[in-house]
Automatic annotation (TrEMBL), chains A, B:
Cellular component aspect of the GO annotation: cytosol
GO molecular function, one term: DNA-binding transcription factor activity
UniProt keyword annotations, A-Z: DNA-binding
NCBIfam families: rrf2_super
Range of residues in the leader sequence: none
Protein's name according to its UniProt entry: Rrf2 family protein
Lineage: Bacteria, Pseudomonadati, Bacteroidota, Cytophagia, Cytophagales
Origin species: Algoriphagus locisalis
Amino acid sequence: MISKRAKYAIKTILFINDHPELAPMSAKLISEKEHIPYKFLENILRDLKSHQLVKSVRGAEGGYTLGKDPEGISIAQIMRIVDGPIALIPCVSERYYEPCSECEDEETCRIRKLFNELRTEMLPVLERSITTLK
Amino acid sequence: MISKRAKYAIKTILFINDHPELAPMSAKLISEKEHIPYKFLENILRDLKSHQLVKSVRGAEGGYTLGKDPEGISIAQIMRIVDGPIALIPCVSERYYEPCSECEDEETCRIRKLFNELRTEMLPVLERSITTLK
DNA sequence: ATTAATCCTATCTAATTGGTAGGAATAATA
DNA sequence: TATTATTCCTACCAATTAGATAGGATTAAT
């Protein structure tokens, strides 16, 4: 299961992308329209900003805009920022790899092999640009 | 990420299936060979038993055997028992469905659509019989 | 000066994860 | 029959994570 944080982050990015006419978009508005607790949303936005997924404008009339071309933003990117690995076990994660403490031989581990295959199936779905979501 | 509980459960089922000559298999042996904390393993086995994935024989020389034909056991089954849903958001889970509290319209939700597609890609991998794992 | 924003640090509560403790019940076998 | 090896059961516990909330400093438009 992904966290609420991740779901909120995805909603936020989609909402900003859907409403270019309201740029820069205030956290208050996002919070109200997407039913995300305001202070929690602030945290999430800070996280997204530190990873360049959004940019901010300070002061009155300020708010957030996407940090890069929406074509280049995927759900996978957002998930990795807020939840960490996409893979379901750490020993098959590319970016967050960690060996399993009790595993005897990673090369022949059937569990690892299966979850590696699983990750391979998952990635293309999650790495599509957010602009392709309908 | 799946829990350690789930990984231990999978290892346990595979180990029992791999060693029919040691049936019934004691928790002590599984614990030692697969490096799973004994008391924790007991919990997991109880859980697997209550879902008919293993059967037990009590007393000295007792232990555990598979609760059904290994052809009929999948990683998905084990994961559902110990971790719950396979789907990454509750609103696309078949067996553990729950609506998203903040969602306005499930039918048109793009996030839901994507994660539903994701689940559809994941299931065939996880629902293969454990006997096919190499 | 006021107001509406972002930014920052810190704190809090509840649930979950990963595990442990202690012992009762059962059955093989010496 | 006593011992031993096992499953079975209830309860507890510590650390971490999830999901926020609090309070205020900073910035900029009006």
